[in-house]
Design brief:
Blueprint lengths: L1 H5 L10 H9 L4 H8 L3 H10 L2 E3 L21 E3 L17 H11 L5 E5 L3 H7 L8 E6 L13 H6 L5 E7 L6 H7 L1 H6 L2 E4 L10 H10 L5 E6 L11 H10 L5 E6 H4 L20 H10 L5 E10 L3 H10 L5 E7 L21 E5 L6 H10 L5 E5 L6 H10 L6 E5 L6 H7 L9 E5 L11 H15 L16 H24 L12 E7 L6 H5 L9 E9 L23 E10 L12 H9 L9 E5 L13 H8 L6 E4 L5 H6 L8 E4 L17 H13 L5
Parallel strand pairs: 1-2, 2-3, 3-4, 4-5, 5-6, 6-7, 7-8, 8-9, 9-10, 10-11, 11-12, 12-13, 13-14, 14-15, 15-16, 16-17, 17-18, 18-19, 19-20
Helix pairs in contact: 2-4, 3-4, 8-10, 10-11, 11-13, 13-14, 15-16, 16-17, 16-18, 21-22
The structure holds 2-acetamido-2-deoxy-beta-D-glucopyranose.
Pfam families: F-box_5 (PF18511)
Protein name: COI1 F-box domain-containing protein
């Protein structure tokens, strides 16, 4: 390039610096930025000057202070939560903590958004004063709460960072009673907050009613509130009408409100055979819900995942359309009667015509007709999720897909008794060429047999007949009209739309077999089940699939030892697949109580990882099987060996620990750049001495990793 410039030709170097700088500023991919910084000294300066976000890795505490980079002075978003060893306190007796804090401030003077692993309050006491202009902070902690006064984790940030607007505690373990007094002690900072994320994943019990009252009273200007709470009326302080009404009256400017019971945050899929109604009803009346909707006119996003029955919710949900006209995202858990779909008149949630994303979990009485009504009414629907709805079948899914063919790009189907893999995929056929993200359950055995495609067509004409009753509203118009003529016109339009999309997909028999735009596939699979039937179930041709997430769940003791591998190598059929999340963290074997022969989870690790070397993966997130009682997730010898054979890996994140000796196997992967061990589950073990979480072994491994020559 320099040669060409000398020769007089016009090159990119003739661009004024300001323009070049804007161009570089718009590059978001970190590797592309790193490459740009290597071009020449000028590009280096421009790239560094426009780098606003940085995640620091490596071991800062252990006499590596000189390694803190000082060339990223424009960084505003700094993430210190992934320093190694993972979860280690920044405050170490072997180094001078004050010096570390000053060095960090000096290196990153512009920081306004900070993510930090705060194992003890001392970390924040040290860091918060360094960046008084912080507007956003995310705290991370999976270790147990240190014995300290209530609220002492939050006191330093609320005291020193008076410009804060956003606090994220979703990955931070604390007690719910820590927060209200801390907010009350710093009323000015609390009152200025606009976003609080309290959807804390590690809670056993969520926020209580009186705590929600206190928090919302202290933070009247909140626009976004996400809160993990307790809806179960059997608990003292459960969230009921009082809290629901208070949220709206204390924080009338909310645009985003998520209220989810902690039970919904645990990973389990649930049992599709369950009756559908929980044993208890929630202590929330439809009157209180109406009050909530009326009080929050700016609402754009609403999650109410209650885990206890909210019955006859349809009439109340209808109000959302008029009271919250900006609502785009809605998720409801355990709401029954949300769309009755009696006759052709739209009702209930189907009247929320602005919705772009809708998620329905555990609605016991939702039927195919309800689904069709939703598809007609919510004409902008781009994302749809259905979980634990027994009555829905592939016919409902299929008609919905036909109706919303032009808008739907994301679909999740899980834990529905009548929607195993084959029927779910059959239902999605009408949008097979459009969908970008998909979740299904890998349930093979119950597969309803489809004799041939004629049955599908028959089923559709059944649905169409149902729909072709008088006064069918078009999905993109309001439901009220008076003129006969208009009815006829609309009816015609509606049915032709349907016929047209029908024709295109099924009618003429040229149904696209290809999932042309599918980029991300998420799967749930029971322990011991095999993966290869996936292709036969309908997902054989996915030319763009880049990422796959597999969640394995179940108790190994109930399964005999596997005789053939899980079948990861069957994913070789997806040519672009480069990222995988393989989560066996909910595969349990109860090492201490299981019958002999079933205790060894490494057998299962070998079963799952076998064949992984055949995939050309770039990034892998792996959760080893664990025993909850033993609270120990650790890589076994066979799995370290199998992972070491993935020669294309560049990033490897193990959500657990590993012995240093096993880690050295990974050095055989030629392009491996980033290896992280994260104990991101509660409670992370306190005693890390036997594992790679030790400072010394971690440093040795990282040194060895960095000594290698990486080609790029
Ligand atoms: C996986 O790769 C190995 C060689 O590394 C090869 O022997 C084996 O046949 C491959 N498996 C499949 C299913 O292609």
């Amino acid at each position: 390039m320099a040669g060409a410039a000398a020769g007089g030709a016009t090159t990119i170097h003739d661009l004024p610096d300001a323009i070049l700088s804007s161009i570089l500023a718009s590059v978001t991919d970190t590797r592309a930025r790193n490459a740009a910084a290597l071009v020449c000294r000028k590009w280096l300066v421009l790239e560094r000057g426009t780098r606003t976000s940085l995640t620091l890795r490596g071991n800062v505490v252990h006499n590596n202070l000189y390694m803190i980079p000082t060339c990223f002075r424009a960084v505003t978003h700094l993430d210190l939560s992934l320093l190694s060893p993972w979860g280690h306190s920044l405050i170490s007796p072997s180094s001078d903590p004050m010096l570390l804090a000053h060095l960090l401030r000096h290196a990153f003077p512009m920081v306004t958004s900070l993510t930090v692993y705060a194992r003890t309050p001392a970390t924040l006491q040290l860091l918060a004063p360094q960046w008084p202009n912080l507007t956003h902070i995310k705290l991370v902690k999976w270790h147990q709460r240190s014995p300290s006064a209530l609220g002492s984790d939050f006191d330093p940030i609320l005291r020193h960072c008076t410009s804060l607007t956003s606090v994220d505690l979703s990955n931070f373990y604390y007690w719910t009673e820590d927060l209200p007094p801390a907010l009350q002690a710093h009323p000015a900072t609390a009152a200025a907050l606009t976003r609080l994320d309290l959807m804390t994943l590690s809670f056993a019990e969520g926020f209580k009613s009186h705590e929600i009252l206190a928090i919302t009273a202290a933070c009247p200007n909140l626009q976004q509130l996400l809160i993990a709470c307790t809806f179960d009326p059997r608990y003292i302080g459960f969230v009921g009408d009082e809290a629901i009404v208070a949220i709206a009256s204390n924080c009338p400017g909310l645009t985003v409100l998520h209220l989810a019971d902690t039970a919904s945050l645990s990973n389990g899929r649930g049992d599709p055979e369950e009756e559908g109604f929980s044993s208890e009803d929630a202590g929330i009346s439809t009157t209180a819900l109406s009050g909530l909707f009326s009080g929050l006119p700016l609402l754009q996003e609403l999650v109410l995942d209650v885990c206890k029955n909210v019955r006859d919710s349809g009439a109340t949900l209808e109000m959302l359309n008029s009271r919250c006209p900006k609502l785009r995202v809605l998720k409801l858990g355990h709401f029954h009667g949300l769309c009755l779909a009696i006759g052709s008149q739209l009702d209930g949630v189907a009247l929320c015509q602005g919705l772009e994303s809708l998620s329905i979990k555990n609605s016991a009485d939702l039927t195919d007709m309800g689904l069709i009504a939703i598809a007609r009414g919510c004409s902008k629907l781009a994302k749809f999720e259905i979980h634990g709805c027994k009555k829905v079948t592939w016919k409902g899914i299929s008609t919905m897909a036909c109706l919303r063919r032009s808008t739907l790009v994301e679909f999740k189907i899980s834990c529905c008794k009548n929607l195993d893999a084959v029927s779910a995929l059959r239902g999605l056929e009408p949008i097979r060429d459009r969908i970008q993200r998909l979740h299904i359950d890998c349930i093979w055995d119950r597969s309803e047999q489809f004799e041939d495609s004629e049955e599908a067509i028959l089923a559709h004409s059944f649905d169409l007949n149902e729909l072709e009753q008088p006064s069918i509203p078009s999905q993109d118009d309001d439901r009220f009209w008076d003129h006969e003529a208009s009815i006829k016109k609309k009816k015609r339009k509606y049915t032709t739309d349907l016929d047209a999309s029908y024709e295109q997909n099924n009618g003429n028999g040229i149904c696209s077999k290809t999932w042309e735009r599918l980029r991300c596939l998420s799967l749930w699979i029971g322990v011991g089940e095999l993966l290869p039937p996936l292709a036969k179930a309908g997902l054989d041709d996915c030319p763009c699939l880049e990422e796959i997430q597999i969640k394995v769940e179940g108790d190994c003791r109930e399964r005999s030892k596997p005789s053939q591998p899980f079948g990861l190598s069957s994913l070789m059929r997806y040519p672009r697949l480069s990222k995988m999340k393989l989560d066996c963290g909910d595969t349990i074997g109860y090492a201490l109580t299981a019958p002999s022969g079933q205790t060894d989870l490494s057998t299962w690790e070998r079963f799952y990882l076998n064949g992984i070397k055949n995939l050309t993966l770039n990034e892998l997130d792996y959760w080893p099987p664990q025993d909850k009682d033993v609270n120990h997730r650790s890589l076994s010898l066979p799995s370290a060996g199998l992972l070491a054979e993935c020669v294309t890996l560049r990033k490897l994140f193990i959500h657990g620990t590993a012995h240093e000796h096993f880690m050295t196997f990974l050095l055989a992967i030629p392009n491996l750049r980033d290896v992280q061990l994260r104990e991101d589950y509660y409670p992370a073990p306190e005693n890390d001495m036997s594992t790679e979480m030790r400072i010394d072994s971690c440093s040795r491994f990282e040194d060895a990793l960095n000594r290698r020559r990486i080609l790029d």
